[in-house]
Amino acid sequence: MTIDEKTMTELEAAAFRRLVVHLRERTDVQNIDLMNLAGFCRNCLSNWLKDAADARGVAMSKDESREHVYGMPYEDWKARHQNEATAEQRAAFDRNRPQH
Predict the structure, then answer these.
(1) Residue 1 pLDDT > 90, yes or no?
(2) Residue 44 and residue 39: Cα distance in Å, rounded?
(3) d(CA 37, CA 59)
């Protein structure tokens, strides 16, 4: 595969945008389930976005990065879509807690 760096960056950005749209649409999937199954969640993705902004000297707050990923203020998303974690979800999280 020979793709120049600029094109690869554009492809990666497009994939990121599609992932963000997908996660916004799948409000039925809880962050704790994502963490337990994939080792990352919407909050991780927003943290990675902020880390990338910080590394490039781009001003972005934690709230701004979360709003970008969630499509609304985080507190609004939590109130609308986040359920209390079950005992089983919490136990799985404690067993599999990612180290990032």
Answers:
(1) no
(2) 9
(3) 32
Q: What residues does each domain of the chain span? A: 29-96
* CA neighbor of 62 nearest in space, from 77, 42, 46: 46
Q: Which ranges of the chain does DSSP label H, i.e. alpha helix?
A: 5-25, 31-38, 42-55, 62-70, 74-81, 87-96
Predicted TM-score (pTM) of this structure? 0.88
Convert the pLDDT of each residue in 33-54 to its tens digit.
999 999 999 999 999 999 999 9
Domain 29-96 part of CATH 1.10.3340.10: yes
- CB-count burial class (<10 Å; 0-12, 13-18, 19+) for 41: buried
DSSP state of 29: S
Residue 100 banded pLDDT, cuts 50, 70, 90:
low
